[in-house]
């Protein structure tokens, strides 16, 4: 590569449905040492209609889902073009996670929508996308994919904990191999409960901190066999709807919203704390929207001996988008970007399909 650096976009649309995260990252590789600089970042909130559509996308017919795939690709492409124009960016290419509708690796299925062909045409930027499907085809979980960024961009931490719609962690094993897994449902549940009060999320954990833990609900939430399974393992909306949401909703018949929220936070803190303790990590970087939930952070710290360190605001809000810029960079360089030790695939590989820019 002739240039000493390259600018790459990263796009992330997560299960918490906050909106579309966009970043532009400058990657430099001097003497084999990879470094990165965040040049620009933005979150474009989803409208209420788009959020509701994405929330219920798994119930759509095949034709309606295909049309949503096209519409979201056009939306992402237009967002890229607008983002680049405003920030005066000229990225070499973009890495897009897409938006997950189905994630059933046990059935060989993972589906992320947001048509990359339409993205490439609309944005006039080469798109690298579809990172998960190859891993699933190779026997992996197709998730989590962020740990390659944890290993290369944040090596100073023993573990990296992300509190998004789903909580997940990656860490160095005793032999320095990168390991990772999804832990439990997180903001997907907290946001659903907060929205029953007319709020998008529980700011600073105010609703949860006003309640008390209900022992019956806590037992139902924490006893699922998933939490005692060895990794690699991953979660999707399907798990939330079948194993978590029914317990939360059924509890409205006997306890208050505040108590349900408080119990949900305690469930997360216990499961996450146990996971971090079993790993034995001294210092854990915490990112994702849940890092802003003071009550959740306090309860997690109570249940773990690891020192929880909240990243700076850009890391908290945009680490996953930065990771997908990195995955695209590694894919275009022909380098490994998915680790078998993390996903359980048959081998390390360089995932992602390249969709050339088209005017």
Structural notes for this entry:
- The strands form three sheets. This protein has a six-stranded mixed beta sheet with strand order 3-2-1-4-7-13. The protein has a five-stranded mixed beta sheet with strand order 10-9-8-11-12, sandwiched between helices.
- It contains 13 helices and 13 strands.
- The protein has two domains: 5-142 and 319-355, ATPase, nucleotide binding domain (Nucleotidyltransferase, domain 5), CATH 3.30.420; 147-314, ATPase, nucleotide binding domain (Nucleotidyltransferase, domain 5, 2-Layer Sandwich).
- Helix 6 (187-194) packs antiparallel against helix 10, helix 8 (215-222) crosses helix 10 and helix 10 (257-279) crosses helix 11 (294-303).
- With 359 residues, it is an alpha/beta fold.
Shape: globular
Helix content: 40-55%
Q: Briefly note the structural class of the backbone.
A: alpha/beta
Query: How many helices?
Result: 13
Secondary-structure element pattern, one letter each: EEEHHEEEHEHHEEEHHHHHEHEHHE
Number of strands: 13
Average pLDDT, rounded to a whole number, is 95
Q: Any idea what the CATH architecture of the largest domain is?
A: 2-Layer Sandwich
Would you identify the CATH H-level superfamily of the largest domain? ATPase, nucleotide binding domain
Number of domains: 2
CATH topology call of the largest domain: Nucleotidyltransferase, domain 5
Low-confidence stretches: none
Measured between the Cα atoms of the first and last residue, the distance is 25 Å
**Strand proportion:** 15-25%
User: Strands of the biggest beta sheet: in what spatial order?
Assistant: 3-2-1-4-7-13
Please report the first level of CATH classification, the CATH class of the largest domain. Alpha Beta
C-alpha Rg (nearest Å): 20 Å
């Amino acid at each position: 590569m002739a240039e000493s650096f390259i600018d790459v976009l990263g796009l992330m649309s997560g299960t918490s449905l906050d909106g579309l995260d966009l970043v532009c990252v400058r990657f430099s590789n001097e003497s084999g040492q990879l470094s990165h600089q965040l040049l620009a970042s933005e979150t474009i909130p989803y409208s209420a209609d788009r959020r509701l559509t994405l929330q219920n996308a798994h119930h759509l017919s095949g034709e309606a889902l295909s049309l949503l795939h096209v519409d979201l690709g056009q939306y992402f492409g237009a967002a890229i073009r607008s983002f680049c124009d405003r920030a005066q960016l000229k990225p070499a290419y973009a890495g897009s996670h897409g938006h997950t509708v189905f994630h059933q690796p046990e059935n060989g299925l993972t589906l992320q929508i947001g048509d990359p062909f339409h993205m490439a045409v609309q944005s006039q930027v080469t798109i690298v996308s579809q990172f998960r499907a190859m891993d699933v085809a190779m026997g992996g979980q197709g998730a989590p994919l962020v740990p390659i960024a944890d290993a290369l961009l944040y090596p100073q931490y023993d573990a990296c904990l992300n509190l998004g719609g789903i909580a997940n962690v990656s860490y160095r094993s005793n032999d320095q191999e990168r390991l990772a897994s999804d832990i439990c449902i997180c903001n997907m549940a907290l946001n659903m409960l907060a929205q029953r009060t007319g709020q998008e999320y529980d700011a600073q954990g105010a609703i949860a901190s006003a309640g008390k833990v209900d022992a019956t609900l806590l037992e139902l939430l924490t006893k699922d066999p998933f939490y005692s399974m060895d990794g690699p393992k991953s979660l999707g909306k399907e798990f939330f709807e079948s194993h978590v949401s029914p317990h939360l909703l059924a509890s409205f018949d006997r306890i208050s919203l505040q108590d349900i929220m408080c119990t949900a936070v305690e469930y997360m803190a216990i499961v996450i704390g146990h996971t971090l303790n079993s790993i034995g990590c001294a210092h854990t970087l915490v990112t994702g929207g849940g890092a802003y939930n003071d009550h959740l952070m306090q309860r997690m710290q109570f249940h773990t001996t690891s020192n929880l360190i909240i990243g700076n605001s850009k890391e908290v809000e945009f680490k996953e988008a930065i990771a997908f810029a990195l995955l695209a960079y590694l894919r275009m360089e022909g380098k490994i970007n998915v680790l078998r030790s993390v996903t359980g695939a048959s081998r390390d590989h360089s995932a992602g399909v390249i969709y050339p820019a088209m005017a």
